[in-house]
Amino acid sequence: TQHTPIPSPPGVPGLGNIDAIDSDLPIKSLHELAQKYGAIYELNVMGNKMIVINSRDLLNEVSDETRFYKKIAANSNQLRNAAGDGLFTARAPEEKNWGIAHRLLMPIFTPGSVCNIADDMLDIVSQLVLKWERFGAKAVIDTAEDFSRVTLDTICLTAMGYRLNSFYREDLHPLAVAMADFLLVSTKRGSRPPAVQATLVVENAKYEADQKTMFAMAEEIMNERRANPTDRQDVLGLMMYGKDKETGLSLPDKTVQYNLLTFLIAGHETTSGMLVFAVYYLLKNPDTMRKLRDEIDSVMGSRPFTTADMNCMPYLIAVMRETLRLAPTAPARTVAPFEDTVIGGKYFVAKDASITVDTFDCQRDREVWGPDAEEFKPERMLDGKFEALPSNAWQAFGFGMRACIGGAFAWQEAQIALVTIFQHFDLVMNDPTYVLQMKQTLSIKPKDFFIRAIPRKTSP
Ligand code: HEM
Fold this sequence. Notes:
alpha+beta, 5-stranded mixed β-sheet, 3-stranded antiparallel β-sheet, about 10% strand, globular, binds protoporphyrin IX containing FE
């Protein structure tokens, strides 16, 4: 049969599209290529082929788990240096520890179970509120830094019973710095030729040192639990002491460490990025901000958030969905077909070939969202419109068996944080002319986005 060739930018002989991807901000390159080539294109970097898809239709097609599996491609391979066969980077089903960890942990990540940790989440957010109140209206806030403090302390406390106390120190916790640097370098390494990588001696030494810092932390957390036995059924406890019902097996200590680092990474970067984007979009769209504040004031007044308030503010939920549509903080994922196949009715894809799902662009598909797809409009997520979307039009948490395990956790944490913040402060951009720029590590977040938090005069 005749297949249509997948569009591809012209390349340099022998090197292919080596300069097509900006290693500092890959998602920007992908976005520009998507605008140029449309729903699908192929890059060829020194013989490595990479198919990228950008439409809802193709995303829907590759979200068929009988035909496609999650592939651990270049970036994730680098992450395996710290995350090994942990949930995010495991090659499942071959690596059996994925199934064991998945079955042990799934029950505590349902919406019904994450309710139990709402108070701990509120505890950490209250530390941010206290800090902003004490620093006052003139203090310039590094939005991404303070939200990282919230999400990292939250995952550590709720999943591991361990307090990092990031709000009680001037600088970021050494673990936060090591992780951020590790992620940044991992992303770069993923798109660099090994021969070039080998010459970066200083970077490589720092990369090793960051991994040491991370593993030392994971060990300390495990040792502390051994020294202080408890029957807490949290991520740490279930992984250290739980037995998988299906196989009767427990996780080896090394895999527990990989998973602790996985949760520290996956459980904080994406959620903090989401909070920064949400604040950015709200401040750029004052009408939306006003509507959200009215909703929070009328539903909540000034009383603290409780689990009974979860999912009770439809406009807030719409703001969160729209934020993750335009800014899916895990902006891409990779799949591959089990067998030679054809996608889009005409494009041949060989068995095991990498298909990058560019979620950032799939969720801007004009066929789904219309000509104003680039605009921030929470209204398009309201009144049953979200539920009526074609399947997989919105896929910020991934898909199927390898979808995000922390979706309900993140959803709850974001609600608690946003509600509590807007109950206490009027936020303003420190520089009202700020134009969105992004920074990419494993996830994306706004770059150099500073705000000020003005305590509200009229308590609701
Ligand atoms: C997987 C997004 C928060 C833990 C994923 C995937 C996406 C995603 C898209 C699938 C990746 C792939 O297919 O390769 C997000 C977003 C979040 C968020 C947008 C916040 C807004 C969290 C939180 C946790 C978490 C809070 C932990 C508490 C994980 C884990 C996996 C994962 C462990 C791997 C699951 C597996 O393959 O078994 N996430 N995530 N994530 N996420 Fe999240």
